[in-house]
Structures are given as structure tokens and as C-alpha cells.
Amino acid sequence: MGAKTKVAGWIVVGAVAGALTTMQLTATARNPSAALPLEELQQLAAVFGMVKSDYVEPVDEKKLITDAIGGMVAGLDPHSQYFDKKTFKEFREGTSGRFVGVGIEIGMEDGLVKVVSPIEGSPAFRAGVKSGDLITKIDDSFVKGLTMDQAVKKMRGEPNTKVVLTVFRKAESRSFPVTITREEIRVQSVRAKMIEPGYAWLRVSQFQDRTVEDFATKLADLYKQDPNLKGLVLDLRNDPGGLLEASVAISAAFLPKDVTVVSTNGQIAESKAVFKANPEFYSRRGSDPLKKLPEGLKSVPLIVLVNEGSASASEIVAGALQDHKRATVMGSQTFGKGSVQTVRQLSPDTALKITTARYYTPSGRSIQATGIVPDVWLDETAEGNVFAAIRTREADLEKHISSGQGPEVKDPAREKAREEALKKLEEANGKDKDKAPKPLPEFGSAEDFPLQQALNRLKGKTVLASKTQTERKPEDTKTN
């Protein structure tokens, strides 16, 4: 896909499941001459009329139509979706990396919202919220019992409105209210630091609008701290995806110019594309954001960390660097999201996201429902895997499409392992909370076991590879 296609839209990877997506700014009929199934359309109109006239109470006509569209698209696969006004706004916020809120990266601990990190310069940062703080109330609502999504929605809102967070700070054994004025937040999708002299860690949490610029800035800072970098760990764990151009750019930063990064293939002509390590395929603002990076980046020893939560754009990067033998991929088998969705606006506030292609690594591998298999398998902790078995992967989703590269193989051991792991976690949480598994250490911390093994690999030391993990074949669920 070259410059002509990029004028028509921009490429994104969905935030939740890492769906490779093309965003069209205008809606066009792909095949207006195709015959319509008139009998079925007449049935649809008849049902619409019956519901409107005979249902127990009056129904909204527009809602009936949008529900019909939503149901039709949802029946295709897990990643095709109709966006109404609200969900389309959320989708665009997710890909832009901008939203209105308080500015904290969060997780959950004991049913409470845990502050992983306040975003530097955000309202929460200025209000003194710290990493490790637990949020027990949002305004008058207790957090206990809320899902993470519900808590996030309560903290977000309109610009210049206030929200009161009740914070429990373990280190001080006290709770206190913090009043924060919401404002537009730009998510920081790239973090980096020198772990020790000569060795650096760079984490991409999502591929968003400014990820490439932030990536280049962080790398330049690392090289200023140590111009003779001996090794770099690129951390893509739990990265669900984002803008395709960003994944191509980050791959290109480490690869020779013009080599293939990823290709796509589907029915329509524009879905047949090859993306190369060239500014033409990733530069969105006219200039190359990577041009000032040190030449040594092309040859610095590189480890890519992945896990079951690494999806789509993350898999593009890991697959490209693995196929070109530019990096050692370490961790667990990735999510397996290798289908392409096109998002076309139906109106200024609504859109349709529909699966149009699969994407492939440079060697021609389909990632769909299989994922990237690491070169070196790693457990989550020194004691083994706690949560890996229960994480959902593409192959676990109903109606997922196949890889297109042969029949899928039933793997009964996969489902059995998930059921056993879930049972153990439920028993530990319900009967003996002292024996319940502890949350995994923060990525990039001194207790981060996979990161320590990646460093050992870079230094030529012994790596404590997993003795239990094996490649997971896609499950034989319904395919389209």
C-alpha cells in the first residue's frame, strides 16, 4: 500500500483485540452492481413493520435499524462492528491516544483501582497522585464491585468538570480525597530507561498517533545517556495494537531499508498490499521521524518481549524482526490477531468496521489464530506461570476466522489447562486469600522476571527458559 491509498485513510489496529484496520473518511459502495437478495430484504422489511406495529409498546425506528445493522455485522466475526455515535467517539479516542480524564494509568488490586503511574503533567500528577495509590471511591461511588471499564468511564467526562477521588495510600496508612479537574490527556505509549550501564529497556504499550515520534525521542535520550549501547529490550507485552504505520516505523528503525515488514491480502484490490521499511509507508506528516536516530540502532543486539496480550501491531513488529533474524523474540505465544478490518464512515458520527483481509509476516506466515511463537519461551515469574493459561487469545473467540493456511487443529489440552487454572484461582481467592497469587510485578521493575532473562540473553548468561510452555495450536472453533 503506497501513498495513494494512504491519502484515502489511515491505518489503525484496534485497541482491545489489536484488529488491523483501515479508516476510510468517505463511504463508498464496493460493488453497487451486485444483485441484492430481494426476498430476504422483503422479509426484513416485513419484520420491521410487525415489530413497529405489534410490539407490546412503541419502539424507536432508528434504534430498530441500528440494532439490525449491529446484529448483522456482529454475526460475521469478533472484530467486525457497527459504531454508533458513542462507540465511534471511543474508537477514535483510542487510536488518537487522546481523551478527557484525570491522567492515570491504572490496574486492579483487591477489587480497587490501583494507580500504576500518573501521566506526567496530567491533572492527577499535579494533584499529587502517586504510583501504588488505591482509589476506593469515585465521587460518591465505591470502586469495589466495579469493573475496570466502569471505573474508567466514571473518571472520564467533559473538559473542566471536577471529579473527587478517594485515595488510600498504603505507605502512609491513610485515606484522603483528591479533587481533580478533568482535561484532555495524551496517553504516553512509550516508556524507556537505562536498566544498567550499556543496557536499555523500551516499552511500547500501544501504537498510537504520536508513538513513533515519542519512540524516536526516547531512543535518542537513551543514546545520549550511553552512546555505546550494548543491548536493547523492546517490550511489547500486553500491547494490543494501534496504528499500522507506527508498527511499520518501529520495525523499520531496526531493519535495513526497503525490506518487507508486513503484507495484507483479501478480496478487494486495496487489501492486497506490501508495507516496507521505508518512510513512504510510515511517515504521516511529510518528514521521516526516524532519520535522526543513531546508525548503531540497526545492529544493536535486540530482544523483543511478548506475551499472550501482545496483539496485531505488536505481532507485526515481533514477526518482522523475527523473520529477518534481527531480534530474538522471548516470552509466550502471542494473541494471534492477524485479520484486517476496514472502517468506513456512514455519517459524521457513525461507521462500519468490517474484516477485509489477513496480514502476513515477511516470510508469508499468517498470524491469524496462531500468533508469533517465541524463539525462547519464558514464564511470567521464577515460580512459573500464574495468569498465562487463563488469558483469552484469538483462537478462544467464537466465530474467529481461520489463518487461511490449512485446517485448524483441535487442542483439548488448551481448554483443560484454562479450566484448571481458573479453578485454582477461584479456590485461592475464595478460601485462602493469603495463598492467592500476587499480582505480577510492574513491567520494567527489578522484579520483572522476563526482563531479567532478556538481559541475561543479551549478556550471554544463562537464561531460565520455561520448561512447561509449548506451542498452542488454534482451536477448532467455527470459522468464516
List keywords for this structure.
seven-stranded mixed sheet, 27% helix, 2-enoyl-CoA Hydratase, Chain A, domain 1, six-stranded antiparallel sheet, 24% strand, alpha+beta, disordered C terminus, 480 residues, Pdz3 Domain, disordered N terminus, single chain, CtpA/B_N
Describe the structure.
The protein is built from eleven helices and 21 strands. The chain has 480 residues and is an alpha+beta fold. The protein folds into two domains: 99-186, PDZ domain (Pdz3 Domain); 190-340 and 361-459, 2-enoyl-CoA Hydratase, Chain A, domain 1 (Alpha-Beta Complex). The strands form four sheets. Strands 1, 2, 3, 15, 16, 19 and 20 form a seven-stranded mixed β-sheet that branches. β7 (134-138) and β8 (141-142) form a beta hairpin. Mean pLDDT is 84; it is low at 1-29 and 475-480. One of its GO terms (cellular component) is outer membrane-bounded periplasmic space. Belongs to the peptidase S41A family.
